[in-house]
Design a protein that fits this description.
With 364 residues, the chain is an all-alpha fold. It has 14 helices and 2 strands; from the N terminus they run H-H-H-H-H-E-H-H-H-H-H-H-H-H-E-H. It comes from Leifsonia williamsii.
Length: 364
C-alpha cells in the first residue's frame, strides 16, 4: 500500500467532504444521466458518513447532552434546505413539509429507537436509561407534533391547514417548546440526559476515551459544515431522479417525504446505533427524540416563514391513519420509557410500528 493510499485510508473523513463539494460543483449545471446519478449517490452516502464522524468528534469534545444537539441541529438544517428547495418548484408540494416531518417523527421514535433498544438489550438482556430526561423529551415531541401536525386537521380552516394567524401561533409555540427543552437539557437538568449505568447512576464520560483537543474539534466542526453543504447540494441533485423513480414505480407522491427523511436521518441513525452498542442508550434516546424535536420545532417555523414566498398552500394536517399511528406510537413510547429499563421485546414492538408506517406509506 502506497503512502498516499495509507494517508487517505486514515483521513477519509477529511477527503470525502472535499470530494463531495467537487462533485457538487461538477454536476450542478449538468443534466444528470444514470451513471452520474449513481456516482452522486455513492459520494452522498460517503459524505453523510463523514458528517457523522465529525459530529461525533465535536460531540465528544463538548460532552453530553450538548453533543446530541450538534447532530440534531445539523440534520434539521439539511431537512429544511431540502424541503424549501423542493417546495419552491410548486409541483405537488403542498404536503411535502408534513410528509417529511411526520416521516422524521416515525423514523426516530420507532425506527431508530427500536433498533437501538434491540442492539443494546440484545447484548445485555436489558438496557437502562434515565426516565426523567427521556420522558421530558417524549412529552415535548408529543406536544410539538400534536400542535403542528394533528391540530390542523381539526380547525375550522378549510382543508388540513392553518390560517395565517394559526400558523404564526404554531411556529412561535414550536420555538418556545424547543427553546425550553434545550435550556432544560443543557442547563437546568443536564444530569437527566446523561448516560446511566445498569444501576441508574449517571456516567459523565467514557472511562477509556480521551476527549479530542480544541484544535481537532474545531477542524471537525469546519469539516462538518463543509460536509453538510455537500450533503444538501448533492441531495438536491438527487431529488429530481428520486421523484421520477417514485412516480415511475407507482408509489404515492407522499413517499418522497419518506425518502427525504430517511436520507437526512441516516447520520442520526448511525450515531445512535453506535451509542447503543457502547451501552449508552440514553445518548441514543437523546439523538432520536432530539432529532424528532428539532425536526418539528425548527422545521415548522422555518417553513412557516418560507411559505410567505413559496407557491401553493401549506397542508400540515395528518390523515386519519397517520393520526392513529402517531397516537399508538406515543402510547407505546410512554410504556417503553417510563420504567427506565427496556428489553428486546420493546425494541421489536417499535420496529413493527416502523414497518407499519412504511407499509402504509406505500399502500395508504
Amino acid at each position: 500500500m502506497s503512502t498516499a493510499t495509507r494517508w487517505i485510508s486514515r483521513n477519509w473523513a477529511v477527503v470525502v467532504p472535499i470530494i463531495g463539494v467537487v462533485v457538487l460543483v461538477i454536476f450542478w449545471t449538468v443534466e444528470l444521466q444514470p451513471v452520474a446519478v449513481a456516482i452522486i449517490a455513492v459520494v452522498l452516502a460517503g459524505t453523510v458518513l463523514a458528517a457523522v464522524q465529525h459530529a461525533e468528534v465535536v460531540a465528544h469534545r463538548v460532552g453530553e447532552p450538548f453533543g446530541s444537539l450538534v447532530l440534531a441541529v445539523a440534520v434539521t438544517v439539511i431537512e429544511v434546505a431540502l424541503i424549501v428547495t423542493l417546495m419552491s418548484t410548486g409541483k405537488d408540494s403542498e404536503t411535502l413539509a408534513r410528509d417529511t416531518v411526520f416521516s422524521a417523527v416515525m423514523i426516530t421514535m420507532n425506527g431508530i429507537v427500536g433498533l437501538c433498544l434491540l442492539l443494546s438489550a440484545s447484548r445485555r438482556e436489558m438496557t437502562a436509561f434515565n426516565a426523567r430526561g427521556s420522558s421530558t423529551a417524549l412529552a415535548t415531541v408529543t406536544a410539538l407534533a400534536t400542535l403542528t401536525l394533528v391540530l390542523p386537521s381539526f380547525t375550522e380552516t378549510p382543508g388540513p391547514q392553518f390560517s395565517p394567524s394559526q400558523l404564526v401561533f404554531a411556529a412561535v409555540a414550536s420555538l418556545a417548546l424547543y427553546g425550553m427543552f434545550v435550556f432544560t437539557q443543557t442547563f437546568a437538568h443536564r444530569d437527566f440526559f446523561l448516560p446511566v449505568t445498569p444501576k441508574g447512576k449517571p456516567l459523565e464520560e467514557d472511562e477509556h476515551a480521551e476527549a479530542p483537543s480544541t484544535r481537532t474539534a474545531l477542524i471537525s466542526l469546519g469539516l462538518l459544515l463543509v460536509a453538510l453543504v455537500a450533503v444538501v447540494g448533492l441531495a438536491k441533485l438527487e431529488s429530481t431522479p428520486i421523484e421520477r423513480a417514485v412516480v415511475g414505480i407507482g408509489l404515492p407522491q407522499s413517499f418522497v417525504g419518506v425518502i427525504i427523511a430517511l436520507l437526512v436521518l441516516l447520520p442520526e441513525g448511525i450515531a445512535a446505533a453506535k451509542a447503543a452498542n457502547r451501552n449508552r442508550m440514553q445518548t441514543s434516546l437523546n439523538l432520536a427524540l432530539g432529532s424528532a424535536m428539532a425536526s418539528i420545532g425548527l422545521t415548522i417555523p422555518a417553513i412557516a416563514v418560507a411559505s410567505i414566498w413559496l407557491p401553493g398552500a401549506l397542508h400540515l394536517g395528518l390523515g386519519a391513519s397517520q393520526i392513529v399511528l402517531f397516537a399508538l406510537t406515543v402510547a407505546v413510547s410512554i410504556l417503553t420509557i417510563m420504567p427506565g429499563r427496556a428489553v428486546r421485546m420493546q425494541g421489536g414492538i417499535h420496529l413493527v410500528l416502523f414497518a407499519a408506517f412504511l407499509f402504509l406509506s406505500i399502500a395508504p
